Amino acid sequence: LRESLAQAEAAVRSDPSDGQSWYVLGNAHVSLFFAGGQSPGSARRALAAYAQAERVDAAAAANPDLHLNRATLLQYLERFQAALEGLSRAAELAPGWDEPRKRHGNLLEFLSRLCSLLANRGKLRGKRRRGLAGPVPLPLLGPLGGAGGPRPSPIAALRPGP
Fold first, then answer.
1. Contacts 24+ apart (CB under 8 A), 64-71
2. Which of 28, 45, 46, 98 would be a feasible disulfide site paired with 5, CB 3.0-4.6 Å?
3. Residue 87 reports pLDDT greater than 70
4. Gene3D superfamilies from the xrefs (predicted)?
């Protein structure tokens, strides 16, 4: 992946107005994001590369794969509105391609179920819901609950740091 990334960066440096090179660079960063521990930096660089591809090249902006790949990353980052817009755009650009429409429908269904669960508080009632609202028992924290490990704190007491 690192070699592919280096090649894509070299292609962008040699011709910054080539939207295809920017698209490939975005794909390389997406691959690195998913294979390399979901680094927020890789996600930001992928989104920036896709945006640059659209800015510098009308043909790249009309590439349905670009919109589908970006939407996949946005969905993973929980930026659902932008993901839905990207899937819609990919479907517009490739009317015969079912994948964007299928993913759009799946995402809408997921969001609908999520909203329903939130509205119904996860379908939990009274005593069970109150039990979940309390502190997490230390044995359930596994190694975090052992002697010398971090202790649960109220949200208001949390501060930046380890």
1. 64/89, 64/90, 64/91, 64/93, 64/94, 64/97, 64/100, 65/23, 65/90, 66/23, 66/26, 67/93, 67/100, 68/99, 68/100, 68/103, 69/26, 69/27, 69/30, 70/26, 70/46, 71/100, 71/103
2. 28
3. yes
4. Tetratricopeptide repeat domain
pLDDT, position 120: 75
Which DSSP string do the residues of 85-134 spell out, in sequence order? Answer: HHHHHHHHH-TT-HHHHHHHHHHHHHHHHHHHHHHTGGG--HHHHHHHHS
Domains by residue range for the chain, with CATH: 1-124 (1.25.40.10)
Measured between alpha carbons, how far is 61 from 120 in angstroms, rounded to an integer? 41
Looking at every residue in the chain, the average pLDDT score rounds to 86
Tokens of 12: 């962008």
With a CB cutoff of 8 Å and minimum separation 6, the contacts of 24 are 8, 11
- Other Cβ atoms less than 10 A from the Cβ of 11: the count is 16
Measured over the CA atoms of residue 94, residue 22, residue 16 and residue 20, the dihedral's sign is: negative
